[in-house]
Amino acid sequence: MDDSRENYFSNTSGTNKGNGDLEPIPLDRLAFDIDGVVADIMTTFLDLARERYGRGHLRYEHITTFFLEECLDLEPWIIETLIRELIDRPHELAVEPFPHAVPVLTRLALETPLVFITARDRAAPIRTWLQRSLEQVDPEAIRVFATGDPDTKIHYLQDHGIRYFVEDRLETCHHLAAHGITPILFAQPWNRREHPFVEVRDWPELAELLFE
Ligand SMILES: [Mg+2]
Known about the structure:
The protein is α/β, with parallel strands linked by helices. The chain contains nine helices and six strands, in the order αβααααβαβαβαββα. It has helices at 2-12, 41-53, 68-71, 76-88, 101-109, 124-133, 153-159, 170-178, 203-211; strands spanning 30-32, 114-118, 142-146, 164-167, 182-186, 198-200. The strands form two sheets. The protein has a four-stranded parallel β-sheet. Strands 2-3 form a two-stranded parallel sheet. Helix 8 (170-178) links the parallel strand 4 and strand 5 (182-186). The longest helix is centred in the first third of the chain and has 13 residues, at 41-53.
């Protein structure tokens, strides 16, 4: 883990793409990460930590890094158990989409199939969750690819001709930008560091970017 951090910091200075002047985004060249962008899994994570393990003191804002054991006062086994569950059965847990994600994606789906690329190692559970959440979208128009690794997202993006990607993990944004993809950072407490990318605070702001 320390290695990837070092890489991240050594990479930042060399990456300087994306300066906020975004041209109109071709909607059929756009794809989305799921967790932390569409699915609010960290709220569910904290709810479960509170309900099952009595950890009521944890707050969303405490999650300032992807390394949960570093920013949350929680035993590693609890973190592991809950994350595994959120990966294996999000459709059976109370996972909500972020506010306004559903209407924006539903509108987008009228123009082009929705492409989701996740670092999860299983596509089926989260595809089921997406299909249920986006109940007005044709299931055929919801395409989900699970890479199992954030660094291999780039291959899926290139294979599908994607040029813009909405992502909440800053390290992935840097990686994609280095390979010619334009990241759009979805703001979260865990990506509050300086960066050169276009950033959106929420789905209404993203909608402005897409449909202006
Ligand atoms: Mg994510």
